[in-house]
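Format notes (please read before filing issues)

Several people have asked whether sequences and structure tokens are stored in separate files. They are not. Every record keeps both together, in the order shown below: the sequence lines, then the token lines. Line labels are part of the format and must not be stripped during preprocessing.
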Amino acid sequence: MASYRKLKSGWKVTISTRDENGKLQQTSKQGFATKKDAQAYAYKHDYKAAKAGIVAFSAYYWNWFNTYKANKVRPNTASVYNNAGLLLERYFKNKPMKDITRTDYQKFLNELGQNHTRAVISSYTSKYMACVKSALADEIISKDFTLQTEKTWKDKEEVEYLELDELKQLIEYVESKLDGRYLSYYVIYVAIYTGMRLGEITALEWSDIDFDAKTISITKTYNSRTHQIGPTKTPSSVRTIKVNDKVLDALLQLKQRNTRKYIFSTNKKIMSSAAASAAVHRVLAAVGINKNFHFHCLRHSHVAYLLANDVDLYAISKRLGHKDMTITAKTYAYLLEDKREKEENKIVDVLNDL
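Then the structure lines:
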């Protein structure tokens, strides 16, 4: 794996590998004009090593990612590539890529499938297969060990959400804490009433709020890992949504005390995902709700409430920033099944009136 550092003399690359006995070997070179030049050097270094049969699958994967993908993908997508690479490291460790068989790779898929859903597995394996094809093109391996292997996955878990009485409890408690001092309560409040993702909320600027039109414009997201503002998860996530007076009143109250560019920021930084999730846990505990809940479940609760009140699925999909209704339907299949059963009973009642 290669790491990069910008020095006064130019970019420096440090290449770390382990030999067959697990001993760390490092080599470095500096003076590159650009990071891209340093990446190219690292790739050539690992190419030569791979030809000699000593480069691990994960080492090749990292250099393939840095060379071909890192500068082209969004931060959220880069995080997925990173997670996929860490899983390779954990399972294959230092095993040379040329020694991996179809059986080895299938066992890896089997283990991976025990803890990941179909969508996640499909995302990871597409990246592994692309990496292996690159290794074939580089003549590092002679056969594609991903061919004729079978993906496995666990059944998708039902989304966690709050029931109506729990949601009202949560809202009542949070409203009692809206005094302009603690940002976490406002973040939770906005999430409940908008269904926005956490990163979308924490990236909000005051200019994104139109108090006259009663809308919020969602055009960017905050990545708490990189501490950077970047583009939304997908192009379809860019949207403008209507909000109710309660949210606008809460934001106006907050604006009296916080006029910084980013609404949910202090003098030091924008609120992190860890801080927001911890706040959700504290609030749930305070109202006596015992659920294994994370911040994103507030988004699910928003959807559950809208569906229970017969809001059209297309409108919900657009509000969430999904590309199309298919994504919404797949994500909330469990909730939609409950709604379908109620609608079936309604159909029977209507037919009985004929």
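For reference, the curators noted about this record: The chain has 14 helices and eight strands. Residues 181 and 257 are 8 Å apart (CA to CA).
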